[in-house]
UniProtKB/TrEMBL annotation:
HAMAP family named among the record's database cross-references: TatA_E
Residue span of region Disordered: 41-80
Keywords: Cell inner membrane, Cell membrane, Membrane, Protein transport, Translocation, Transmembrane, Transmembrane helix, Transport
Bias (Low complexity) ranges: 48-65
Molecular function GO labels: protein transmembrane transporter activity
Record's protein name: Sec-independent protein translocase protein TatA
Chief site of localization: membrane
Length: 80
């Protein structure tokens, strides 16, 4: 009883098709395919070298010079 013959698998397949129907099995297959594709795309994105999150200092100073300042300077008092 270790291995099943082709007839056992065909009977199991027939029962599964009768229980779930072909449309349901098609939807399950396409959902599984999309999940595998999404996983592969995620693995590709994770393997790509990451870009630095902060721009270089030269670009920051150029942006600061071109944009008006919206910060307010406040002197903090220290408790002594």
């Amino acid at each position: 009883m270790g291995s099943f013959s082709i007839w056992h698998w065909l009977i199991v397949l027939l029962i599964v098709v009768m229980v779930f129907g072909t449309k349901k099995l098609k939807n399950i297959g396409s959902d599984l395919g999309q999940a595998v594709k999404g996983f592969k795309d995620g693995m590709k994105d994770g393997a790509a070298p990451e870009q630095p999150a902060t721009p270089p200092a030269a670009q920051v100073t150029q942006q600061a010079a071109s944009e008006p300042s919206t910060t307010i300077d406040v002197q903090a008092k220290q408790k002594g």
